[in-house]
What we know:
Blueprint: E1 2-13, E2 16-28, E3 33-37, H1 44-51, E4 59-64, E5 67-68, H2 74-81, E6 84-87, H3 99-109, H4 114-127, H5 143-155, E7 161-165, H6 173-190, E8 193-198, H7 201-207, E9 210-215, E10 218-224, H8 225-230, H9 235-242, E11 266-275, H10 283-290, E12 295-306, E13 309-319, H11 322-333, E14 337-346
Parallel strand pairs: 3-8, 3-9, 6-7, 7-8
Antiparallel strand pairs: 1-2, 1-4, 4-5, 9-10, 11-13, 11-14, 12-13
Helix pairs in contact: 3-4, 3-5, 4-5, 5-6
Amino acid sequence: MIEIKNLTKTYYGDTGPVAALKGINLTIATGEIYGIIGKSGAGKSTLIRCINMLEAPDGGQVIIDGKDMTALNAADLRSARKKIGMIFQHFNLLSSANVYDNIAFPLKLVGTDDTTVEKKVRPLLELVGLKDFAERYPAQLSGGQKQRVGIARALASDPNILLCDEATSALDPQTTKGVLELIGQINRQMHLTVVVITHEMQVIKDICDKVAVIDGGVIAESGSVVDVFTNPGQPITKEFISVLLSNDLPTAFRDGAVEQEYSPDSYLLLRLIFLGESADDPVIAGMIRAFPQIECTMLFGNLDQIRRIPFGRMIIGITGEQSALAAAMDYLKAHDLRMEVIGYVRRHGIVNR
Length: 353
């Protein structure tokens, strides 16, 4: 387990002090893939570097498996770092060393004998899909292959924790997908705790169990990825999520007035979120059958996945007598979904079905 308690860090420059971290508190459970997302300058890279003490915080604690990293002497800190692997954005490979020697580098650095190095490096080459690339040099590799070398090198010391600092931001989307799948596989097979620093919500959505949103050196919001995606509470979180999941009204309604009071010539707009098995349930069809006196128009809908959990979103417009609308909403609330009332829009703003 990683416990971060009231962590602070301030940098000093020509323009004065800049507070990068302002009392960060986080708990990351053993075996989790925990994402930390923020904009440039939000403090996320400083935070991950404080976890392995590449940056010494000004205050607070970083406790890993009961051991306070901020209280260790130099020798004990070097020993503790052996159990923390790190993957970097720009790979940081030795250009004059081949793939095998890049992976073996941390082992040779501590004097590991060649036989042990061989027994360690060959399985790692297999794990990251580079078994046939051992003799190649970084200049002969693609970006994705270079990152796979970086991942294997980070695993060479048998770490318990894997830190990923913007590990996919230099890669194209297809290569990113492959690297994220590899990190997920490593998490499952080796039972590692993984901390992912990113500015891309797609990365959080695809791989992480939990997420913390950092903004201006403080944690704006945190929780399970499913909860944060389906019910974001802070503007910064909604901004990140909107890149993937637009909350805008359909084009036909963006310029129209949305009222909060019922009128008989208006459509009631509802935003619905379906999660898990309910994403496949015919809830809307059931509502239409149960309340034939209302008219329903589907304005937007999609089906996606968050950490392999089905996730559906829909905007519908319903019209009819106020009592019928209330009964229809009660019907929807009784099912396993989340519902947001957007408001009422005049009938003439609705595109005919």
